[in-house]
Amino acid sequence: MSEVTIRMNVNGTARRGRIEPRKTLADFLREDCVATSVHLACEHGVCGACTVIVDGVASRSCLMFAVQADGASITTAEGLANPDGSLGIVQDAFRQCHGLQCGFCTPGFVVSVTAFLQENPDPSLEEIREGISGNLCRCTGYQGIIKAVQHAAAAGRTAVTSTEGN
Amino acid sequence: MAQPHVSMSDKHRERAPMFEGTAARFVGQKVLRKEDPRLVTGHGQYVDDVVLPGMVHATFLRSNVAKGRITKLDTSAALGLDGVIAVYTHEDLHFPANAIVPTMMMAMGGPVCPENLLAKDDVRFVGDCIAVVVAESRYIAEDALELIDLEIVAETPVVDIEDALTDTHIVHKELGTNIIGTVDIPRDPHIEGLLTESAHVITATFNQARQTNAPMETKGIVASWDRFRGELVVHMSNQNPHEIRRRAADLLAIDESKVHVSQQDVGGGFGQKMFMPREEAVIVLLAREVGRPLKWIEDRRENLMASNHARRDRGTVTFALDADANIVAGYVDINEDAGAYPFGGAGTGAMAGMLLQGPYKLQRTAFKSYAVFTNTCGRAAYRGPWQFESVIREQMVEHVARRIGMDPVELRRRNVIQWEDLPWTTPLQAMVYDNMSPAETLDQAVEMIGYEAFRAEQKRAFEEEGRLLGIGFSLYIEPSAQNMGPLATEGATVQISGTGKVDVFMGTGSHGQSIETTMAQIVAEELGVHVDDVEVHQGDSNTPFGGGTGGSRTASIVSGAGRAAAIQVRQKVFQIAAHLLEANPDDLEIDSSVVSVKGTPAGKTVTLAQVAHTALYATEGLPPGMETGLEATARHRQEAVTWSNACHVCTVEVNANTGAVSFARYIVSEDCGLMINPMVVEGQVAGGVVQGIAGVLYEDFRYDADGNPLTTTFMDYLLPTAAEVPIIEHGHIETPSNTPGGYKGMGEGGAIGAPPCVFNAVADALWLRGIEVFDHPLGPNEILNALATAH
């Protein structure tokens, strides 16, 4: 099958690949960009484990071809840690609130929650439940995840306040 | 909201002579998980992240017919596709008999069904494997599947478990019957008398819906054969590395020492990954044929339709009560769906029958259980494999309460085993109940939910607004941490490096249970070091033999081994430190890795690093004749099961227009002995509860009359989302077990207690309209149909 060349920025690093047009974005990120946080748990766009941010929009990378993201800027869960490797606000909230057990769905949740809180920094409980209902978790019963979103929202507001105070 | 927490009272302590209190610096604390930093940043390593030089990819050709005969299987076109390396069928697989029978089932004899890894002449369920393509990429392998010329002549399948009993059509022709594993404990004349002449004799039949484990990470394996060393290396998403090693060795007829099984992170299992499945067995066999690392990653459709199913059971139960509403006898007849190729989880009906008594003073029980083959996906272990005992009993208790016009809480209180009744020997199997608190958890749950106030509100809401509110309870005890076969034993090696840091090696297969954290807490506690200084290495066959992570066994059995090894090492630390400090070892204590003489805060000390340096690098400083090093391997043997117990209660509202069920509250009062890490305990409870709720309200794996699966995507098989689940409230009662540390197994309990609890709540709401329901699932359609019968 003929191949095409694509370029994208993945977590701040320029990536180029020659791939078959049918290769999914998820497979390209996992196999060609060492972004193995992108997990495939359904490959039909329901579970959200493969969620990445494509040009600012949370997207299911299993439902996109890599060629559709040619030229895009992509953020995965790896890219949400702090530059020194310490946990980002959402990642730390998941740890503090026991928002994960096996961890397989977690990177997708971390990405989805990050995008959700950017749109709605101060969500109600019902908004949180609705806002994360596009991601599936089989271990936690969502209890710790819901708390983690509340925790991250509060931490995010504190961070914004302290930045503004400077 | 503050959550009630009842610690053991003196009466409990007297019954737990082996429990020795510790300072509880780490045990009993909410220690954040060591696993998390890598997982939340996406740096876990799951099996699909394993990429080896020269690796090739496998996919399976599967049957789309429930039962039929293969009349044509031509793979030549597939073989001709560029990038295809080989296509294998039944004739290519050669392995010894019994090679994939789970070790723990060996004592029960050979396989219960034919060991067809790939279909020989006929297919037996939709999803049955027929051929394997090996290719340079997964994409090419899937292309090649399309090129295989397959013809199957369909035959009449067996789909329904009651139809299977007639043997009109046979799933496995070579066996001659669909019925397997009958266990018959007949009613003796005394029980027969009670079941016919008591004041109340009530019979009901309950069906449970088919559910599947559905871990977020599907199954997968990378197997590499090194022909120069004669060794197999297996990376696999599994719960049980030592079992996988044994089965792989048996499949290839090589020594176990020539197999290395390794896993890093595993994305859930819930029983599905406890044994060697058929697909992984094929990959192990073919890895030697192919001669290159061979990867197979199951997709979601395969996982849902062909990995394993569970829970499809029918129970017909009879309870006899005397005039004072004491339940005096019980009998149940259980039919269990084994599917076509069950493994390591079928035959649970007998356990359900034996545990029918549950937490009640039910003196006389008998049962008959049997499983049937059907042309559906095989049954395997799923979190609380025999939880049907709680389903039939707790749904029956509330059914009986309605029939005799008694409050279900009052009926339970009248019959529940009290602390004063313990130890209690069950009439069947002579199991000895002890160190449990069913009556106390019932009281705690009743208090937390505000039972009387809810009943008043329920009445008001129905009478004034016509709303259907309901409340349901379930009360159960759980024989956790089994003491049978390979499940009875675990080992641990505790080893201190020359810098005083602690490595622990355990044979577990963690897949979300937080073992790296909780077992580090145990070892840190006993060694007197900080939990951050302990690393638990597991998920690898290069560890002391263990029975795998499942059956709620880590907290009690694995901790027993870790604790024993840590105590041995601590004793040696004290001997060396005593030599260095010129003190008596019996006078020493260790805290935060500093050894000192008790009661001398300003006295001389020596650090664990100094002791370890002496043991490994400056061995001339050791006491004369002492062996070098600071390490110990110890094993724990579980002499008896631990008895966890819990009471669940939830309140719901049924929408009579849509059939939807919404939760108001969900409470679990749990007694799992002393908690190693309350955060982890509550996480396990919550996860189990939501799976249990889902089994009643949402999931429901369905087949049509021809045996075609109808729910093979997450758009049809509905895992609950954050939008549906209740916020779970926890109450804790801690009654120590009489195993070292006082812990009990608890990972399965949530999934045991939840199904009857939510069922009972919906049933209670429907009873306002005089409607009774008996079967799972209770989706919107079932509820609307039930409501329609009221008119």
- Derived from helix and strand composition plus strand pairing, the structural class of chain B reads alpha+beta
Which descriptor suits the 3D outline of chain A?
globular
Please outline the major beta sheet of chain A: 5 strands, mixed
Order of helices and strands of chain A: EEHEEEHHHH
Contiguous uncertain segments of 5+ residues of chain B:
8-22
Q: Into which percent range does the helicity of residues of chain B fall?
A: 25-40%
What's the end-to-end separation of chain A, in Å?
A: 56 Å
Which pair of chains has the greatest number of interface residues, and how are they split between the two chains? A-B, 57 and 56 residues
Q: C-alpha Rg of chain A, in Å?
A: 16 Å
Between the first and last Cα atoms of chain B, what is the distance in angstroms?
Answer: 42 Å
Q: Main sheet of chain B: which strands, in order across?
A: 4-6-2-13-10-11-12
Mean pLDDT across every amino acid position of chain A: 95
Structure explained in plain terms:
- Chain A is of the alpha+beta class.
- Chain A has 5 helices and 5 strands.
- In chain A, strands 2-1-5-3-4 form a 5-stranded mixed β-sheet, sandwiched between helices.
- Chain A is globular, with a radius of gyration of 16 Å.
- The termini of chain A are far apart.
- By secondary structure, chain B is an alpha+beta fold.
- Helix content of chain B is 28%, strand content 24%.
- About 2% of the residues of chain B have low confidence.
- Classes of the chains: A alpha+beta (166), B alpha+beta (791).
- The interface between A and B is large, with 57 and 56 residues.
Compact description:
The complex is a heterodimer of chains A (166) and B (791). By secondary structure, chain A is an alpha+beta fold.
